[in-house]
Design a protein that fits this description.
Layout: E1 8-13, H1 17-27, E2 33-38, H2 47-50, H3 75-83, H4 103-120, E3 123-126, E4 132-136, E5 139-143, E6 148-151, E7 153-156, H5 167-173, E8 179-180, E9 198-201, H6 205-216, E10 223-227, H7 255-271, H8 276-293, H9 296-314, H10 319-331, E11 334-346, E12 351-357, E13 363-368, E14 370-373, H11 382-385, H12 387-394, E15 414-416, E16 422-428, H13 434-437, H14 443-477
Parallel strand pairs: 1-2, 1-7, 2-3, 7-16, 8-14, 9-10, 9-14, 10-11
Antiparallel strand pairs: 4-5, 5-6, 11-12, 12-13, 15-16
Helix pairs in contact: 1-4, 1-14, 6-10, 7-8
């Protein structure tokens, strides 16, 4: 019996792309391990990002660059071709021939990859959210609504926190149906009338989703979209490009140094007829090397001063919603403004909003029928967004990442406690680790990270199994105590 490794239990809180990807790679290692994923949605792998049904919400990376398997970049694209998954979607292909299917197609792809492992029992799916986690000796007691699991190792792969509604809007319109606080919720925009005057707060990818959805459901009224800088997501490269530039040799020591090197690379690329997309792709790929090496203060400077500019270049818009936005701007039915909200006054007929223009500081008054917030996840509020996370924070097991991008961890994604020590049995999976790890918001980077993380977890599983075997051997060698 001592030669049979004991079964180690790994619990994963969250079964979106990150949690499902770690479970997939861990299960394929054929370890004597029980993998339990807590996810209330019916299928693993889709999560908030890929679990919707709106066909206007498309992936913003060409299908040939998205894959569950990092070593096989075109795996998803081949699956589409084999299953004819975009049949009936005449707009899925761009003019260059790249596929940008609806995000739910990628969710279906993930479900199919995980289905055999679920059928074999290699992965267990508990269709419940995690409600509480407590430390029970060396183990974690993970509770759902009706299920409890005692786990040796816990991975936190929870979803992003919801957007933060600006206080001036929330205080004026709390509970008002004309405030759509979370545009990602199912049917959130369904009741907006075709001629309604809409204010969108936030000008990133979620804004693009909102405009594409409204346009598809027949909305032709005026839309004003505002953000502090008035920046909108940039489009895709006009043609496939290889990454351009080296940013990890030598490692940059400060935020200004990194910025100078990026700007220099962009200029050099342009001189060779290469667009900025190639430079940003190189930064994304190399961030896992230079980002963890930057001092915390330099990372904080980048997040504070450059994040908005990074986001609009990094989170590129798919050609289809970009075409809708360009058309609406040309028609005059969409205006993107660098502004903030100073005041909101509610009346039965309309919402009166005082906007403060960024460049002139001028204040203008406009009336709207609806306000939609698309400010993106409130990453800095992750540890208060769910009860179980708040409990782990209160117990000292988790702390916020100092860059306010997620949860603090070391470079192996092991969670850091309030004392600053890494817990070898508590891991942070997916984008919530990006404050330490680096770029972790796109499928290519997250997929690679999850495969590496599965290896870290597998190593800890093996260590636990070996420790158990050694203990069993020692006990077996001990002489029996004499009777009496």
């Amino acid at each position: 019996m001592s030669g049979v490794p004991r079964q180690v239990t790994v619990a994963i809180a969250g079964g979106g792309f990150s949690g499902a990807a770690v479970a997939y790679h861990l299960a394929l290692r054929c370890l004597a391990v029980r993998i339990v994923v807590f996810e209330p949605r019916p299928h693993l792998g889709a999560g908030l990002a890929y679990g919707g049904s709106d066909p206007q919400h498309r992936i913003n990376v060409p299908a040939q660059k998205m894959s569950l398997i990092p070593s096989d970049e075109a795996h998803f694209r081949r699956w589409i071709d084999a299953t004819n998954a975009t049949a009936g979607d005449a707009d899925a292909a761009s003019s260059e021939g790249d596929l940008y299917p609806g995000r739910q197609v990628f969710g279906s792809y993930m479900e199919q990859q995980l289905r055999p492992l679920l059928a074999q029992g290699a992965i267990e799916h508990v269709r419940e959210p995690v409600t509480a986690v407590t430390k029970d000796g060396e183990r974690w007691l993970v509770r759902g609504e009706n299920t409890s699991v005692s786990a040796d190792i816990l991975l936190i792969a929870t979803t992003h926190p919801p957007p933060r509604v600006p206080a001036v809007i929330a205080n004026a319109l709390g509970g008002d149906r004309r405030l759509i606080a979370d545009a990602t919720a199912p049917e959130a925009l369904a009741n907006i009338e075709p001629g309604a005057n809409v204010l969108i707060v936030g000008t990133g990818l979620t804004m693009a989703d909102v405009i594409a959805t409204l346009d598809a459901q027949g909305h032709r009224g005026p839309i004003t979209a505002i953000s502090r800088r008035g920046l909108r997501s940039r489009g895709q490269a006009p043609s496939p490009v290889d990454p351009f530039g080296i940013f990890n040799e030598p490692l940059p020591k400060t935020a200004p140094e990194l910025l100078r090197r990026v700007r220099t690379a962009v200029a050099e690329a342009e001189g060779q007829g290469v667009t900025w997309h190639a430079v940003l792709d190189a930064v994304r790929a190399q961030a896992r090397y230079f980002w963890p090496a930057l001092p915390i203060k330099e990372r904080q400077r980048i997040v504070r001063h450059l994040r908005a500019h990074w986001d609009v270049h990094r989170f590129r818009i798919a050609p289809q919603p970009e075409a809708v936005i360009d058309r609406r701007i040309a028609e005059g039915s969409l205006l993107i403004v660098a502004a903030g909200v100073d005041q909101v006054l509610s009346s039965p007929d309309h919402l009166e909003v005082v906007l403060r223009l960024r460049r002139t500081r001028e204040r203008i008054v406009r009336t709207f029928d609806y306000i939609v917030t698309t400010t993106g996840p409130a990453h800095g509020e992750i540890l208060s967004s769910q009860t179980y996370l708040a409990g782990l924070k209160a117990a000292g097991h988790l702390v916020e990442d100092p860059t306010h991008l997620g949860i603090a961890c070391d470079r192996a994604a092991r969670a850091l406690s309030s004392s600053g020590t890494a817990d070898a049995r508590l891991f942070i999976a997916g984008p919530l680790a990006r404050g330490t790890v680096g770029e972790l918001m796109g499928v290519p980077e997250v997929s690679e990270f999850c495969a590496v993380l599965a290896g870290e977890v597998a190593a800890e599983v093996t260590r636990l199994q070996n420790a158990t075997g050694e203990m069993s051997a020692r006990l077996g060698r001990q002489p029996l105590a004499a009777d009496g």
